[in-house]
Design a protein that fits this description.
This protein is mostly beta strands. The chain folds into 3 domains: 204 residues, no CATH class; 70 residues, OB fold (Dihydrolipoamide Acetyltransferase, E2P), CATH 2.40.50; 56 residues, SH3 type barrels (Roll). The protein is 8% helix and 39% strand. The chain has 4 helices and 27 strands. The strands form 5 sheets. It has a 16-stranded mixed β-sheet that branches. The chain has a 4-stranded antiparallel β-sheet with strand order 5-10-9-6. It has a 3-stranded antiparallel β-sheet with strand order 2-4-11, with no helix packed on it. The two termini are 24 Å apart. 35% of the residues are buried.
């Protein structure tokens, strides 16, 4: 039988992580291959063109369009200051003189004798691209970006919101099934990546934002709280650009769901270590997972690169991702090769999962994801 592969969450103590950091437009790369960088270092920079403003000189000066350039005090490409005179008429009676001033600090982009309009552009805005993780530059992509590599512990969540951030790992929950309370969040948690247990309520998240925590990693959250945080229902687009004051990573699902023991133990074991994390999630084509990257002190004992993921096999840990057992974690007991009829009357390939309490269930393979290590 051809082996089956189910994409899943990675939870691993040791991996080589490579991050491709690319500018949205071409710019300048500021680092070299072999250079050591930290998460906050700027590795590339570009300039986003400023906003364009239009001035109708014909109307303002009561002239014909073909006379526009003749009445300009400033030429194309010249820099202007806000309220500086850029055009004026020359009436016979000086009291009727009219002047046009610039509404912005910027540059004269173009002057048209056809339309009688002048385009002014605001100064470009610098766009800095950060390394995101502590590591080494292993590739430079000319005018576009770099690839950063580091040996690290690595874990993924199933959903997240908020952008990239970094901070010190700080366990808050004592057990993976603990629900956080606002009292658990302290002023000393400012800038920290907080590791919770089963659930974080809206008051907990508000408190974390108040103390300026960098991120919360939690087993579950109620969907109504997510709507309140975002101020709207979540669509199908990629997350990660939300400006909510914190990054939130959910490792298990919606509701109060204990964090997987393997994930919890890995994160708690890294207390006091610097980590980088991102809430960016895309659940359709081109799956993107929220993640926590905890750079290692050295590459000793790590493979040079991640190997190819093989098919599922007995003993592999899996998480059920559909009802009625959504969020439960178990291990594959067997992989029956034949198609099996399920209640929907479809015939699909299934697997048998055993749980920690000794129970078993036969589940369609599409309803589970492997927890990679």
């Amino acid at each position: 039988m051809a082996h089956a592969y189910t994409p899943g969450l990675r939870v691993t103590e040791a991996a080589v992580i490579r991050k491709r950091r690319i500018l949205p437009i071409q710019g300048t790369v500021l680092v070299k291959v072999g250079q050591k960088v930290t998460a906050g270092d700027v590795v590339a920079r570009a300039e986003i063109p400023g906003k364009v403003h239009t001035l109708n000189i014909v109307n303002k000066l009561s002239i014909e369009a073909r006379e526009t350039k003749r009445h300009m005090k400033k030429k194309e490409t010249e820099v202007v200051k806000k309220d500086e005179v850029i055009a004026e008429n020359n009436p016979m009676i000086k009291w009727f003189k009219t002047q046009v001033t610039s509404p912005i600090d910027g540059t004269i982009e173009s002057v048209s004798d056809v339309t009688g309009q002048v385009l002014l552009r605001e100064p470009p805005q610098p766009l800095n691209l950060h390394a995101y993780i502590d590591g080494t530059i292993v590739e430079v992509i000319d005018r576009e970006g770099v690839v950063v590599e580091c040996p690290a512990a690595f874990t993924q969540g199933i959903f997240g919101i908020g952008g990239e951030t970094s901070g010190i790992i700080e366990p808050v929950a004592k057990t993976p099934d603990q629900n956080l309370t606002p009292a658990d969040i302290l002023p000393s948690h400012a800038g920290k990546i907080l590791i919770g247990g089963a659930h974080a309520s809206m008051p907990v998240i508000r408190r974390a934002i108040e103390v300026k925590a960098a991120a919360i990693v939690i087993g579950g959250i109620h969907d109504k709280d997510l709507r309140e945080i975002l101020g709207k229902d979540l669509g199908v687009a990629i997350t990660g650009t939300e400006k909510i004051g914190i990054t939130l990573i959910i490792t298990e699902g919606f509701g109060s769901i204990p964090m997987a023991r393997k994930t919890f133990d890995l994160l708690v074991g890294k207390k006091g270590r610097k980590a980088s994390c991102s809430g960016a999630t895309q659940i359709r084509a081109g799956v993107i997972r929220p993640e926590i990257v905890i750079p290692a002190d050295s590459a000793a004992g790590l493979a040079a690169a991640d190997g190819e993921r093989q098919g599922m096999k007995p003993g592999d840990p899996v998480r059920i991702i559909r009802e009625p057992m959504f969020g439960r974690i178990g291990a594959i007991k067997s992989l029956p090769p034949d198609l099996t009829s399920i209640p929907t009357e479809s015939h699909v390939r299934v697997l048998v999962v055993s749980f920690a309490d000794g129970s078993e269930a036969t589940i369609p393979r599409a309803n589970v994801e492997t927890i990679e290590s």
